[in-house]
Design a protein that fits this description.
The structure holds 2 protein chains of 2 kinds. Chain A is built from no helices and 11 strands. By secondary structure, chain A is mainly beta. Chain A starts with a strand and ends with a strand. By secondary structure, chain B is mainly β. Classes of the chains: A mainly beta, B mainly beta. Chains A and B meet through β5, β9 and β10 of A and β4, β5, β9 and β10 of B.
């Protein structure tokens, strides 16, 4: 089954403790992206990657890192999480950066930073 | 900066009604997406448009590039259509990178 898999689905942690949210897709997609969703603000793009070893900042990249060493994986890293990073996070992928390709979303990761 | 405005924010309808959700944006775009987010949180891509009109089942999406406006229509609405509908536009920023900007969503509730 074609899917985007995020782990963990839920995480409660404390300020400053490094964490990684994994994202994996099995569709051989080139383009992958991370978003956060906050009440009243909607979805905002954190980082995206157009292919292996090619990443770029979205609208809200501060406090996050990403890597794209393999095509299928695009982990989101919070080196020193803070409470303002408490949010619902979505990973998405599409076949290419071409604007007529649909995005496939993961089920979301709810992070709470205390 | 590209702004994406959706209206209405909330919409309540009776089963069977024709639904329209609107999306306006402020700069030239390469594509517009309509997404559906169910109460459980999962997001599904419904349509991508760069011109004209697309139809899938009871859903119809239109875009007017000149007026920078798109509409999502649902015919014969059903309670299972209850969800948040999100408009997103893809555009090229001044730095040359492609950005995806989302509207805040329209919460649709269809009552039986």
């Amino acid at each position: 089954e074609a899917q985007v898999t995020q782990n963990p689905r839920y995480l409660i942690t404390v300020t400053g403790k490094k964490l990684t949210v994994t994202c994996s897709q099995n569709m051989n997609h080139e383009y992958m992206s991370w978003y956060r969703q906050d009440p009243g603000l909607g979805l905002r793009q954190i980082y995206y990657s157009m292919n292996v070893e090619v990443t770029d900042k979205g609208d809200v990249p501060e406090g996050y890192k990403v890597s794209r060493k393999e095509k299928r994986n695009f982990p989101l890293i919070l080196e020193s999480p803070s409470p303002n990073q408490t949010s619902l996070y979505f990973c998405a992928s599409s076949l290419s950066r071409n604007s007529n390709q649909p995005q496939h979303f993961g089920d979301g990761t709810r992070l709470s930073i205390l | 900066k590209n702004e994406v405005e959706q209206s209405p924010q909330n919409l309540t309808a009776q089963e069977g009604e024709f639904i329209t959700i609107n999306c306006s944006y402020s700069v030239g775009i390469s594509a517009l997406h309509w997404l559906q987010q169910h109460p459980g949180g999962g997001i599904v891509s419904l349509f991508m448009l760069s011109s004209g009109k697309k139809k899938h089942g009871r859903l119809i999406a239109t875009i007017n590039i000149q007026e920078k406006h798109s509409s999502l229509h649902i015919t014969a609405s059903h309670p299972r259509d209850s969800a948040v509908y999100i408009c997103a536009v893809r555009f090229r920023s001044q730095g040359g990178s492609e950005k995806l900007v989302f509207g805040k969503g329209t919460k649709l509730t269809v009552n039986p």
